[in-house]
Amino acid sequence: MKRIPFSLCAFAITSALASTAGWAQTASTSSYPVRPVRFVVGFAPGGPPDVIARITGQDIGAALGQTVVVENRPGGNAQVATELVARATPDGYTLLFSALSLLVNPILLEGRARYDPFKDFAPVSNAALLPMVVVTGAPSKINTLPELLAAAKAKPGAVTYATPGHGGSPHLAGALLENLSGTRMTGVPFRGNGPALTDVMSGQVTFMFYPMLGIADHVATKRLKVLAVGTPKRHPDFADVPTMAESGFPGFEETAPWVGLLAPTGTPAAIVNRLSEEMRKSLAKPDTVARLKALGAVTVGDTPGEFLKFLRKDHERWTRVIKAAGVKAE
After folding, report:
1. How far apart (Å, rounded) are the C-alpha atoms in residues 39 and 32?
2. Which whole-number Å values give the CA distances from 84 to 48, 57, 80, in the listed order?
3. Which whole-number Å values give the CA distances from 228 to 92, 135, 176, 207, 310, in the listed order?
4. Contact predicate 287/295, CB 8 Å
């Protein structure tokens, strides 16, 4: 019997295993999903990332034929959720519905964050931008942004601004306003946007930057006043309120936080592209657009490649903002 060289046997076995593995991955990808998909959100229920995750998740789940479960894992400015997904099996079943904190935490922690926003994640799609507004309680005697800054200059440190936590977009916007206006104000951290806004309404805290989500309702019920809007042009919901640019701070609209979907690095491209396609379909539906618009969100819905370019540009922008404002980690 003619002997077959060991090297040829090894090559044949290796090729067969590779072919089998490739077939198995293709099969699992083509049948995806076969069980519920998790959207992990690093913030408490009711905040902008949570609300938008639930709206789009409902559409995506219906399209995929599986339930999309939104799981809230708040903590550490979303670090708990981000690290969980970064280490999850890259099979498309555990995904991160993230926000600006994805980029900001590694900048603030200067190498001490336990994830890399670009090495550990595959962008799926940017869902929406959330322009911020400057709000104060309705009983406040302050009615304009110049009046707010005048009060801050008159009594350094006496004017306070609420934040949903250290390093979040409202905190960074407040710190940037201090830096650009030459004032000294006091940031007051809360565990989430909801409690922060409650204390602004009651007058316990002077003001805050808040995503436009649901603010029009609070204005209509006379619980809040809007001092300025962070949009390029005046917003139709607050037509009489000047923009940040009109108030002397051009470019503030670029600080609008975003919310979007990411997968762990290594997730098959076919799954990432499928999820991105369904996200874009959801955001193109008239009722979804209307719901997000009513919440003050600006829909995006881009491709994985476009989202990656946006994230790199946003990372550069916030690096400049954090350094300019002198924001440090807690």
Report:
1. 16
2. 20, 19, 6
3. 41, 8, 15, 11, 26
4. no
CA 112 to chain CA mean position, Å = 21
- Enter the tokens of residue 169: 């977009």
Q: At the fourth CATH level, which superfamily is domain 132-255? A: Periplasmic binding protein-like II (3.40.190.10)
CB 41 within 8 A of CB 81: yes
- Spans of all domains in the chain: 34-129+257-325, 132-255
pTM metric for this prediction: 0.80
Task: Supply 99's token pair.
Answer: 């926000």
Residues 206 and 188: their CA atoms lie apart, in Å, by 10
**CATH homologous superfamily of 34-129+257-325:** Bordetella uptake gene, domain 1 (3.40.190.150)
Cis peptide before 33 (omega within 30 of 0): yes
Tokens of 86: 């970064």
- Summarised one tens digit per residue, pLDDT across range 226-258 is 999 998 899 888 999 999 999 999 988 877 889
Helices (H), 38-126: 48-64, 79-86, 101-109
By CB atoms closer than 10 A (0-12, 13-18, 19+), residue 19 is exposed
Phi and psi at 35, nearest 5°, equal -150, 170
Structure tokens at 118: 């670009």
Using a pLDDT cut of 70, give the percent of the chain over it: 91
Helix 79-86 × helix 101-109 angle, to 10°: 100
Considering only the C-alpha atoms of the chain, give the largest distance between any 2 of them, rounded to a whole number of Å.
99
